[in-house]
Amino acid sequence: MTERRAGSHIAALEDTPPQNAKHYREIQRWIRTISARAYELAKTGAIPIFLGGDHSLSMGSINGVARHCREQGRELFVMWLDAHADYNTPATTITGNMHGMSAAFLCGEEGLDGLLGHEPRAPIDSSRLELFGTRSIDKLEKDLVKLRRISVADMRKIDEFGVSVLIRRVIDRVKAVDGVLHLSFDVDFLDPEVAPGVDVRQRRHVCLGRGAGCRGADRSGNQRWSRRELVRVARRQDIRRVREGTVHSPSP
After folding, report:
1. Which domains can be identified in the chain, with CATH numbers?
2. How confident is the model over 133-143, as pLDDT tens digits?
């Protein structure tokens, strides 16, 4: 049996959805399609930008890119700009939201093992995940992040060192091993005044000026970006503000 989605036929899977994973089947179909497409694009040498509604998108896009990097013998690093760590599993999640499990899935954590079906899974080592701007993390999730010794640039570090300095440190790590860097940007990383349509708001935001520091680091001569993605951008009020030119950096 197949279903018509996003202009392609997607075979329905018969694996048993895990408990505590909301909208599993729908997300599964999209993730399989995105992973395959990301892999094909990576092989062409293109640098596409993926746009989506939440961070579950990355379970497909980054997996496809990681698969290509593995075949090329290069290490893929992921810079995760998000207010949340997204390192839950079905066993640790409080909400059951799969976008909160994205980073954990990409690092090979158990619980969503059948998500990709027959599409090859290419997990990255947790030491190559960089959580950036994190300011909301569940207790069990935090324990797992500590256990895996994942690098976390929280708001305290951003306040102390600044965005550009911290990002340049990541870029230096990537350069040292001739690796590849994937930037995954969730708009809730920013102040809700900039992106009011974000549905999971967190206090102690990163303002637009700090977010621009990411762009500044991108101009530093680095040629190792692989792919980029921007999520939570489909909210009507965000689109309206962009069209009207009213997006601005809030006053200090």
Report:
1. 18-244 (3.40.800.10)
2. 998 999 999 99
